[in-house]
Specification:
Radius of gyration of chain A: 19 Å
Helix content of chain A: 25-40%
CATH topology of the largest domain in chain A: Rossmann fold
Oligomer: homodimer
Number of domains of chain A: 2
CATH superfamily of the largest domain in chain A: HUPs
Strand order of the largest sheet of chain A: 1-4-3-2-6-7
Order of helices and strands of chain A: EHEHEHEHEHHEHEHHHEEE
Shape of chain A: globular
Chain lengths: 289, 289
């Protein structure tokens, strides 16, 4: 089993993708921050279905972390990541340094309005500017035919679709479903922050979303359903709920009822971890959980 | 003489440039707001030297005009522009509508920090966000090998170089010198706003910059030289000087003396027109005026 080629500069990345393109191959990009789990690897599988060659980027992007957040603590293990990528057939690992991505004098920000005003945008000021800027750069560096992102970061996925459309970046954006532990907890690199007790409590977030989704699909109003779900999450041991809310699946506008394609989204703190999750809510009563 | 092909959508533009690329041709883009004069046409000549095919875009970009500015009054005459472009051998005229550039739901802004904080950025809040966003879009729509911009908008040229580097847009940015009337007035689509009397006064701006440049290159300090130049401009009949300042040619940092490659930049109001101009200042005493 040969591992992916590792490249660390924009020049080396473009040389590699240029070689592939000369043979007529299509290229997919899977942007990640490393600490790869089966959720990330499912994105690589999807990318392999969609293109001839797959580049996985690993870059813990300082610009999407706030001052009090876990940039320094965020898990990093490139050697293990490279082994995992070899096992799923990624062709290249692009792991630029911070200086390669943000050289001296760097001064440009991509801002997506509207979509980023609340939810994780309200809880993490500047976060989506950091995401939008780094994703724009990665897409323009690699110039892939397709890029694959997880629905786990649902608001982020909508922000990326928006900026790609608005800036006319020539790439298809594909979302892939959340991958979960057997008990329902969404896979996340931040789950490693949980103690054993917290880990046992953590699936309550998904379970509360599922119960709420079923009630909303049955036609109940959002106010009571969401209040009950928040109570469940706190009762299970979460410290605070940043948000647990019903939104239009495309615009993230708040909804009073699931009268159109909708999404239930939540963020909640459990010990040192801030966990996020989301589930679809179908207006016609097609259950998702 | 066949005129340029006119395209009005991103799809039609990409179809045209794609056809050219299949034959191995390189493509240059010259972004303009129309009302083309010899300054613009000099950019097309330069583009013709640099690439096999030249696209000139004409788009009066609402996002770079402030609330009290001349968006509605800005001169527009596409038929005359197309004739002028035919005469200089442009291959395509890309003239998208506002709805094509900013469809419903558009929400993304490209912001370049630092360089845009003062000069025209201070006088025209939001102007450079509008410029950076539309130029990013035009570059990503046309995907040219090279794009040509006038040094007349010197601060804009630096902003564009910065965003192209920062966002990793794969294009060469080329600046072309200011084109002037025989009496020194920089060509500008806004010169049509001047009355006959104002038109006679207008070259004073360039003359003041030239005299100041000579004195700075001889080693005089900036404070006295710039004050004298401002007085000259006002004495010639200008209503107000927005700025007349000596800056580092690469960073636009203010300078007390021309001790490195520098630029003298000015903006001043004359009747209903706000005129801008700039000249290089060489540290070694190589006169530019």
């Amino acid at each position: 089993m040969t591992g992916p080629v590792t490249v660390r500069s924009v020049g080396a990345l473009r040389a590699q993708t240029g070689q592939w393109r000369e043979t007529g191959a299509t290229v997919a990009l899977v942007p990640t921050m490393g600490a790869l789990h089966d959720g990330h690897l499912s994105l690589v599988h999807k990318a392999n279905e969609l293109a001839d060659r797959v580049v996985v980027s690993i870059f813990v992007n300082p610009r999407q972390f706030g001052p009090g957040e876990d940039y320094a603590a965020y898990p990093r293990d490139e050697a293990v990541d490279a082994e995992n990528l070899a096992a799923v057939g990624a062709d290249a690992l692009y792991a630029p340094t911070v200086a390669e991505m943000y050289p001296d004098g760097f001064a440009t920000t991509v801002h997506v309005g509207g979509l980023t005003d609340d939810l994780c945008g309200a809880a993490r000021p500047g976060h989506f500017d950091g995401v939008a800027t780094v994703v724009s750069k990665l897409l323009l560096q690699a110039r892939p035919d397709v890029a694959v992102f997880g629905e786990k970061d649902y608001q982020q996925l909508l922000v990326i679709r928006r900026l790609v459309r608005d800036l006319d970046i020539l790439v298809s954006i594909v979302g892939a479903p959340v991958v979960r532990e057997p008990d329902g907890l969404a896979l996340s690199s931040r789950n490693t922050y949980l103690t054993a007790d917290q880990r046992r409590a953590a699936p309550a977030l998904y379970k509360a979303l599922c119960r709420a989704s079923v009630r909303l699909e049955a036609g109940e109003g959002a106010a009571g359903v969401l209040a009950a779900a928040r109570d469940e999450v706190v009762a299970a041991g979460f410290d605070a709920v940043d948000y647990l809310t019903l939104r239009d699946a495309a615009t993230l506008a708040p909804l009073d009822a699931a009268d159109r394609p909708a999404r239930l989204l939540a963020a909640a703190h459990l010990g040192g971890a801030r966990l996020i999750d989301n589930v679809p809510v179908a207006p016609a009563g097609e259950g998702a959980c």
